[in-house]
Amino acid sequence: MNENDRAITGLVMLAHSMVHTYEFAFPVFVPLWLSQFGTTEAVIGVVLTLGLSLFGLGSLPAGVLADRYGSKELIVLCLVGMGGSFLLLGAAPAVGGLLGVESLPVVGVAPELGVVAVALVLWGTAASVYHPAGLSLITRGVVERGDAFAYHGTAGNVGTALGPFVTTVLLFALSDNWELVAAVLALPALAGALAATRVSVDEMAAVATDGGADGASKADPGVDSLGEFLATSRQLFVGAFVVVFAVVMLSGLYYRGALTFLPELFAGFDAIQPVELAGREVEPGNYIYTGLLAVGVGGQYAGGKLTDRLPVELGLAVGYGTLGVIALAYLPAAEAGLVPLLVLSALLGFFLFFVQPFYQATVAEYSPAEARGLSYGYTYLGVFGVGALGATVAGVALSAFSQAVLFAILAGLGLFAGLLGFVLYGRAR
């Protein structure tokens, strides 16, 4: 990597790790919210969907802004917004108490839970900026793109694992005071924003030039009107990008549906029993959840490296097909004992993140450079916007049906995404 490659890679690694640190703190809070607010998995699933859907829905305008104005400033704003939303989350009980009502009209939930929902919406809006901005920065500014995807994905998974781990440790140290834990977690994002302002990068260094020697792109920088936005969108959706978009939507539904309630599911599996530590009962499930996500570091790194060595469509097909099989085998493994459950959890963590560099690279293959931000905006609209419905689907499946129904749905999502990957591979061949 050259100096600019390293600067961009360092910046996106910082921001990507922060985004997923916060994203995966939420599932650790879920059991505490269920207990404190006296509600159900279905209600919490809807609350999480509100915030997490903005994580995706905001990606589309963020992609337009990344094409038009560049990525670095958007990444700084993302970090500031995430830190501020966690400060509000920590203040939720105090703010809810100021409303002076026992439940919110129409929705009928505790006012404190309503403030939690607002904080989640603000977090989702801020976090939505990152992926279109960060991935556009990699694909337009980094020459060694495969390595950058590998390091970027690895950093995201470090954050993914640190989120539940640090949250669990802080909850133990602070006697399950989740409000104080949320406030403490706000600090790294604010510090990261300050550090990001000091990074200098050439955002267009890797884009094809019009014969210039300075590496600056002569491409039209994005869209600047509604008509141009619609025209560019039509250009994207007249070809195979439609299939890519379907794959990322299925990916998002599987991702959110599988991960949102896993800590709660672990608490109910016979294979996982509470242990005593320092006179307190500790649920090992949170640590197994952290381990599952930590294994994803290897998946992200392997997937990123392989995007330059295998057809990306084949990586999609194999990765998602494997996830479908894992979902079918997960509950039988849990019933067979702790060791089979740990093995399947490790495989789930590996392949859940192995596929991400492949769909990120596939988007780059099926979109023009001048609309790269918009294409990633649509991508993360599918992954995190439509995908956020996976939290509601999982909550309803667990509340109204059973664990078996949830994992059957996940299997169907994975296998269908794998089939679409084979369709793309056949077309490319």
UniProtKB/TrEMBL annotation:
PROSITE patterns: MFS (PS50850). GO terms for cellular component: plasma membrane. The keyword Transmembrane helix applies. Pfam families: MFS_1 (PF07690). The chain crosses the membrane at residues 7-30, 42-62, 74-95, 115-137, 149-174, 180-197, 236-255, 287-303, 310-331, 337-355, 376-398, 404-425. The keyword ATP-binding does not apply. CDD domains: MFS. Keywords: Membrane, Transmembrane, Transmembrane helix. GO terms for molecular function: transmembrane transporter activity. InterPro entries: MFS, MFS_dom, MFS_trans_sf. Residues 1-429 form the Major facilitator superfamily (MFS) profile domain. PANTHER family: FOSMIDOMYCIN RESISTANCE PROTEIN. This is MFS transporter. It comes from Halomarina oriensis. The lineage of its organism: Archaea, Methanobacteriati, Methanobacteriota, Stenosarchaea group, Halobacteria.
